[in-house]
Design goal:
By secondary structure, the chain is mainly beta. Helix content is 0%, strand content 45%. A 5-stranded mixed β-sheet has the order 9-11-16-13-14, with no helix packed on it. The protein has a 4-stranded antiparallel β-sheet with strand order 1-8-3-6, with no helix packed on it. Strands 2-7-4-5 form a 4-stranded antiparallel β-sheet, with no helix packed on it.
């Protein structure tokens, strides 16, 4: 749907739009929500996802003025709400921005998780997804500090790791704390080893676009001869 971030609520609070997803995720798990909101030419947009108890599940504010925000494949198992607002720092003294002429576009999808697609959150070792040798797993790195962790479940041996897709995405590969380079590496893996795929441009200035935030990469693991 389309809407405006219009008249401010007060001198310190911007307008904000709250949406309830009509579709209810399966209570037993296995559903993922993805959200996209387009940018506004004079405003830094922020995006937040809440559950029915008003607990924050995820937020995005990685783009600057005029840039979109997105959140992909976040695990949900209860009713959820989406909030679109202006991004404002806690110490901001400027009046909230108003825009009654330009619309943003919000898209929310609810889907069943696919075995070969990442499921957020997966940026801690306890949340790491299982991956084995083969075609691997697909995912997104849509925020500046995003990192996707995968726990190897195959047999011990020498393997070749490759990251394909999202060609303009700067990638940083690791096994545990060991740096492996960018998109390709040969490495010894044992069951339980954690492989991380992260952005290599997290220090990029906020006024510069983050490339490939909406493009999917694929991590493949194949035995090395």
């Amino acid at each position: 749907m389309s809407a405006h971030i219009g008249r401010r609520i007060s001198k310190t609070e911007s307008d904000r739009d709250v949406y309830r997803l009509l579709e209810v995720p399966a209570p037993g798990g296995g559903d993922q929500v993805s959200i996209r909101v387009s940018g506004l030419p004079n405003m830094d947009i922020a995006l937040a996802l809440y559950d029915g108890r008003e607990q924050l599940l995820a937020s995005r504010d990685d783009g600057g003025v005029g840039q979109p925000e997105q959140l992909f494949a976040h695990r949900v198992r209860s009713p959820v709400y989406v909030v679109v607002s202006e991004a404002r720092g806690a110490t901001s003294i400027a009046l909230p921005t108003e825009n009654v002429s330009d619309e943003y576009r919000l898209t929310v999808t609810l889907e069943r998780a696919e075995p070969q697609v990442e499921s957020e959150p997966n940026d801690t070792a306890s949340d790491a997804a299982t991956v084995s040798a083969g075609p691997g797993v697909a995912g997104w790195l849509e925020r500046r500090d995003d990192v996707d962790l995968y726990r190897f479940s195959g047999t011990s041996g020498r393997y070749h790791l490759t990251v394909t897709g999202a060609d303009k995405l700067p990638v940083r590969l690791r096994r545990g704390s060991d740096e492996l380079g960018s998109r390709e590496a040969s490495v010894t893996l044992a069951p339980g080893d954690v492989i991380s795929v992260a952005r290599a441009d997290r220090l990029r200035p906020r006024e510069q676009d983050l490339p490939a935030t909406d493009q999917r990469y694929r991590l493949a693991i194949t035995p090395s001869n």
